[in-house]
Design goal:
CATH class: Alpha Beta
Largest sheet: 9 strands, mixed
Number of domains: 1
Structural class: alpha/beta
Shape: globular
Order of helices and strands: EHEEHEHEEEEEEEH
Strand order of the largest sheet: 2-1-3-4-11-10-9-6-7
CATH topology: Rossmann fold
CATH superfamily: Class I glutamine amidotransferase (GATase) domain
CATH architecture: 3-Layer(aba) Sandwich
Radius of gyration: 15 Å
Strand content: 25-35%
Number of strands: 11
Helix content: 10-25%
Distance between the termini: 26 Å
Length: 201
Amino acid sequence: MTARILLLHDGHPMAWNLAGALHRLGAAPAFVDWTREAVVGADGWDVVILTGMDLPPGSAGGAGAGLPAGSAEILGDAGQPLLAVGRPAHLLAVRLGCLSRPSTPPRHGQVDLVRHSGLGPLAGLPDPLHVMRYDSYLPADLPEYLSTEAWTEHDETLAWRHRRRPWWGVCFHPGSLFAGPSDGLIENLVSRGKEVLYAAP
């Protein structure tokens, strides 16, 4: 069965790329601009995808809290499966207790070759994997409840997951025209729904 997907964004064009990839794979996501529309819970969806250039307001913040921005309004509860894509993946990781560090060298608008764990939405994707980057800042020094799931040749984190909740972040854009095989990440979400965001700790 095709996953029920809520795609939250802030009007950035990357959201349209993701929506296009989802539609090509047979999904019909709810497409909500959180800067213009009220979001009433997310517990009726298999997966929430968050993309754009910022996070919605209302973050609980802090490493101990482990709650994403706007959780009360958007995620419903801590068990809601979530995939943060692009800059929100970096920002959310920082809200969850990571440091923020610049890439070396800057990689904005560049294709990178990364290694990955093969878990969750990365299952079945080539390793190493070509990905399109749109942010030259990445999460660093992850706390123990976050794990690195994709990394560059310089050991920079390009994908992470929460060990206690079904939350993932990918600091690249699988919906990009130049995404190549990383589009398979979206296909995994559409075909297997929330199950791909649950991985062994």
